[in-house]
Amino acid sequence: MRRILIAALSIGTILLSSCSPRDFLSRRLAFDLLAGSVPFKTSQTYVLQTGVISNKDYVSPEYLVLERHGWINATNTPCSQGLTPSPCWDVRLTPSGVETVRSLVSAEESQKPSITVPTARRELISVTGISKQGIAADVDFSWKWVPLNEIGAALYSADVHFHSTVRFRQYDDGWRIVQNNPQPAQTLDDSLKNAEPTP
Protein backbone atom coordinates (compact mmCIF):
# COMPACT_ATOMS: atom_id res chain seq x y z
CA MET A 1 0.00 0.00 0.00
CA ARG A 2 2.84 2.34 0.88
CA ARG A 3 4.56 1.65 -2.48
CA ILE A 4 1.35 2.47 -4.38
CA LEU A 5 1.03 5.77 -2.48
CA ILE A 6 4.67 6.70 -3.21
CA ALA A 7 4.23 5.77 -6.90
CA ALA A 8 1.01 7.83 -7.12
CA LEU A 9 2.72 10.85 -5.52
CA SER A 10 5.69 10.50 -7.88
CA ILE A 11 3.44 10.35 -10.96
CA GLY A 12 1.42 13.33 -9.67
CA THR A 13 4.59 15.36 -9.16
CA ILE A 14 5.81 14.55 -12.68
CA LEU A 15 2.46 15.52 -14.21
CA LEU A 16 2.27 18.79 -12.27
CA SER A 17 5.83 19.71 -13.18
CA SER A 18 5.03 19.24 -16.89
CA CYS A 19 2.33 21.95 -16.67
CA SER A 20 3.53 25.50 -17.21
CA PRO A 21 1.91 28.56 -15.61
CA ARG A 22 1.36 29.70 -19.23
CA ASP A 23 -0.93 26.71 -19.88
CA PHE A 24 -3.85 28.35 -18.06
CA LEU A 25 -5.01 31.77 -19.26
CA SER A 26 -5.71 33.63 -16.05
CA ARG A 27 -6.20 37.37 -15.72
CA ARG A 28 -2.75 37.55 -14.13
CA LEU A 29 -1.09 35.82 -17.11
CA ALA A 30 -3.02 37.96 -19.60
CA PHE A 31 -1.98 41.11 -17.67
CA ASP A 32 1.71 40.06 -17.67
CA LEU A 33 1.67 39.22 -21.40
CA LEU A 34 -0.03 42.51 -22.31
CA ALA A 35 2.21 44.63 -20.05
CA GLY A 36 5.31 42.99 -21.56
CA SER A 37 4.18 43.44 -25.17
CA VAL A 38 5.86 45.87 -27.57
CA PRO A 39 2.96 48.40 -27.69
CA PHE A 40 3.07 48.73 -23.90
CA LYS A 41 6.86 48.95 -23.72
CA THR A 42 7.30 51.40 -26.62
CA SER A 43 6.95 55.13 -26.07
CA GLN A 44 4.56 57.12 -28.26
CA THR A 45 6.19 59.89 -30.29
CA TYR A 46 4.82 62.94 -32.02
CA VAL A 47 6.37 64.37 -35.19
CA LEU A 48 6.21 68.17 -35.15
CA GLN A 49 6.56 69.51 -38.69
CA THR A 50 7.90 73.07 -38.85
CA GLY A 51 8.15 75.23 -41.97
CA VAL A 52 5.38 75.46 -44.58
CA ILE A 53 2.51 73.04 -44.02
CA SER A 54 -0.98 72.72 -45.49
CA ASN A 55 -4.11 73.97 -43.79
CA LYS A 56 -5.26 70.36 -43.27
CA ASP A 57 -2.22 69.66 -41.09
CA TYR A 58 -2.30 73.02 -39.33
CA VAL A 59 -5.89 72.69 -38.13
CA SER A 60 -5.23 69.25 -36.59
CA PRO A 61 -5.91 69.07 -32.84
CA GLU A 62 -2.21 68.61 -32.04
CA TYR A 63 -1.09 71.86 -33.70
CA LEU A 64 -3.93 73.76 -32.06
CA VAL A 65 -2.88 72.44 -28.64
CA LEU A 66 0.79 73.32 -29.23
CA GLU A 67 -0.19 76.83 -30.36
CA ARG A 68 -2.49 77.31 -27.35
CA HIS A 69 0.44 76.43 -25.05
CA GLY A 70 2.62 79.01 -26.79
CA TRP A 71 5.14 76.51 -28.22
CA ILE A 72 4.49 77.31 -31.90
CA ASN A 73 3.16 80.17 -33.96
CA ALA A 74 2.23 80.32 -37.62
CA THR A 75 1.84 82.90 -40.32
CA ASN A 76 -0.21 82.59 -43.47
CA THR A 77 1.99 81.96 -46.51
CA PRO A 78 1.55 80.93 -50.16
CA CYS A 79 1.51 77.17 -50.72
CA SER A 80 4.45 75.61 -52.48
CA GLN A 81 3.72 73.57 -55.61
CA GLY A 82 1.90 70.34 -54.81
CA LEU A 83 1.01 71.38 -51.25
CA THR A 84 -2.78 71.45 -50.77
CA PRO A 85 -5.28 72.47 -49.51
CA SER A 86 -4.62 76.16 -49.14
CA PRO A 87 -4.12 78.31 -47.23
CA CYS A 88 -0.68 77.21 -46.08
CA TRP A 89 1.07 78.14 -42.87
CA ASP A 90 4.68 78.76 -41.96
CA VAL A 91 5.02 77.06 -38.56
CA ARG A 92 7.86 78.08 -36.24
CA LEU A 93 8.80 77.26 -32.68
CA THR A 94 8.43 80.16 -30.27
CA PRO A 95 11.27 80.88 -27.79
CA SER A 96 9.28 78.89 -25.21
CA GLY A 97 8.83 76.11 -27.75
CA VAL A 98 12.55 76.03 -28.56
CA GLU A 99 13.36 75.74 -24.85
CA THR A 100 10.78 73.01 -24.29
CA VAL A 101 11.78 70.96 -27.35
CA ARG A 102 15.52 71.27 -26.65
CA SER A 103 14.98 69.77 -23.20
CA LEU A 104 13.30 66.71 -24.78
CA VAL A 105 15.40 65.90 -27.87
CA SER A 106 19.01 66.10 -28.98
CA ALA A 107 20.38 69.39 -30.36
CA GLU A 108 20.66 67.76 -33.79
CA GLU A 109 17.00 66.61 -33.72
CA SER A 110 15.76 70.06 -32.64
CA GLN A 111 17.28 71.62 -35.82
CA LYS A 112 15.34 69.36 -38.20
CA PRO A 113 12.11 70.50 -39.93
CA SER A 114 10.41 67.31 -38.66
CA ILE A 115 11.11 66.96 -34.94
CA THR A 116 10.29 63.61 -33.34
CA VAL A 117 9.33 64.21 -29.71
CA PRO A 118 8.70 61.41 -27.17
CA THR A 119 5.33 62.13 -25.62
CA ALA A 120 3.69 59.27 -23.69
CA ARG A 121 3.59 55.57 -22.95
CA ARG A 122 0.68 53.22 -22.39
CA GLU A 123 -0.01 51.85 -18.92
CA LEU A 124 -2.12 48.75 -18.45
CA ILE A 125 -4.70 49.22 -15.70
CA SER A 126 -6.47 45.87 -15.54
CA VAL A 127 -7.73 42.85 -17.40
CA THR A 128 -11.51 43.15 -17.17
CA GLY A 129 -12.59 39.86 -18.71
CA ILE A 130 -11.61 36.73 -20.62
CA SER A 131 -13.86 34.84 -23.02
CA LYS A 132 -12.32 31.48 -24.03
CA GLN A 133 -13.34 29.42 -27.06
CA GLY A 134 -11.11 26.33 -27.14
CA ILE A 135 -7.56 27.36 -27.98
CA ALA A 136 -8.55 31.01 -28.58
CA ALA A 137 -9.64 33.71 -26.16
CA ASP A 138 -10.75 37.33 -26.33
CA VAL A 139 -9.24 39.39 -23.51
CA ASP A 140 -10.83 42.70 -22.49
CA PHE A 141 -8.57 45.20 -20.76
CA SER A 142 -8.37 48.84 -19.74
CA TRP A 143 -5.39 51.17 -20.14
CA LYS A 144 -4.40 54.83 -20.10
CA TRP A 145 -1.74 57.17 -21.44
CA VAL A 146 1.07 58.29 -19.11
CA PRO A 147 2.62 61.54 -20.39
CA LEU A 148 6.44 61.61 -20.40
CA ASN A 149 6.84 65.41 -20.46
CA GLU A 150 5.04 68.76 -20.91
CA ILE A 151 4.21 68.16 -24.55
CA GLY A 152 2.93 64.67 -23.74
CA ALA A 153 0.75 66.09 -20.96
CA ALA A 154 -0.70 68.62 -23.41
CA LEU A 155 -1.47 65.99 -26.05
CA TYR A 156 -2.53 63.00 -23.89
CA SER A 157 -4.74 63.11 -20.83
CA ALA A 158 -3.73 60.71 -18.04
CA ASP A 159 -7.31 60.87 -16.69
CA VAL A 160 -8.95 59.15 -19.67
CA HIS A 161 -9.13 55.35 -19.49
CA PHE A 162 -9.58 53.26 -22.62
CA HIS A 163 -11.17 49.85 -23.16
CA SER A 164 -9.75 47.39 -25.70
CA THR A 165 -10.14 43.74 -26.67
CA VAL A 166 -7.44 41.50 -28.12
CA ARG A 167 -7.26 37.87 -29.24
CA PHE A 168 -5.02 35.34 -27.48
CA ARG A 169 -4.19 31.87 -28.79
CA GLN A 170 -2.92 28.77 -27.00
CA TYR A 171 0.22 27.18 -28.47
CA ASP A 172 2.26 24.16 -27.37
CA ASP A 173 4.33 26.43 -25.09
CA GLY A 174 1.37 28.33 -23.63
CA TRP A 175 -0.82 31.35 -24.39
CA ARG A 176 0.33 34.21 -26.61
CA ILE A 177 -1.12 37.45 -27.94
CA VAL A 178 -2.13 37.09 -31.59
CA GLN A 179 0.15 39.44 -33.55
CA ASN A 180 -0.97 38.76 -37.13
CA ASN A 181 -4.57 37.75 -37.35
CA PRO A 182 -6.10 36.50 -40.61
CA GLN A 183 -9.47 36.22 -38.83
CA PRO A 184 -11.87 39.10 -38.10
CA ALA A 185 -10.57 39.63 -34.53
CA GLN A 186 -8.22 42.58 -33.98
CA THR A 187 -4.49 42.46 -33.33
CA LEU A 188 -3.17 44.26 -30.23
CA ASP A 189 -2.00 47.26 -32.27
CA ASP A 190 -5.41 47.57 -33.96
CA SER A 191 -7.19 47.14 -30.64
CA LEU A 192 -5.19 49.97 -29.08
CA LYS A 193 -5.72 52.25 -32.09
CA ASN A 194 -9.49 51.57 -32.01
CA ALA A 195 -9.81 51.89 -28.23
CA GLU A 196 -12.84 53.64 -26.86
CA PRO A 197 -12.71 55.88 -23.77
CA THR A 198 -14.33 54.22 -20.75
CA PRO A 199 -17.50 56.10 -19.69
Description:
- The chain is of the alpha+beta class and 199 residues long.
- It has 2 domains: 22-43 and 121-197; 51-112, no CATH class.
- Helices cover 33% and strands 36% of the residues.
- The chain has 9 helices and 9 strands.
- The chain has helices at residues 2-18, 27-35, 38-41, 55-58, 61-68, 95-102, 107-110, 150-155, 188-193; strands spanning 44-49, 51-54, 72-77, 88-93, 114-133, 136-147, 161-171, 174-177, 196-197.
- Strands 1, 5, 6, 7, 8 and 9 form a 6-stranded antiparallel beta sheet that branches. Strands 2-4-3 form a 3-stranded antiparallel beta sheet.
- The N and C termini lie far apart (62 Å).
- Mean pLDDT is 88; it is low at 15-20.
Features:
three-stranded antiparallel sheet; alpha+beta; 199 residues; six-stranded antiparallel sheet; single chain
Q: pLDDT under 50 segments (min length 5)? A: 15-20
Number of helices: 9
Instruction: State the shape.
Output: elongated
Number of E-state strands = 9
Mean pLDDT across residues: 88
Number of domains: 2
Radius of gyration equals 25 Å
Write the H/E string, N to C: HHHEEHHEEHHEEHEEHE
Helix percentage: 25-40%
Q: Structural class, from helix and strand content?
A: alpha+beta
Q: Largest beta sheet, briefly?
A: 6 strands, antiparallel
DSSP strand (E) fraction?
35-45%
Distance between the termini: 62 Å
Q: What is this structure's SSE topology?
A:
Elements: H1 2-18, H2 27-35, H3 38-41, E1 44-49, E2 51-54, H4 55-58, H5 61-68, E3 72-77, E4 88-93, H6 95-102, H7 107-110, E5 114-133, E6 136-147, H8 150-155, E7 161-171, E8 174-177, H9 188-193, E9 196-197
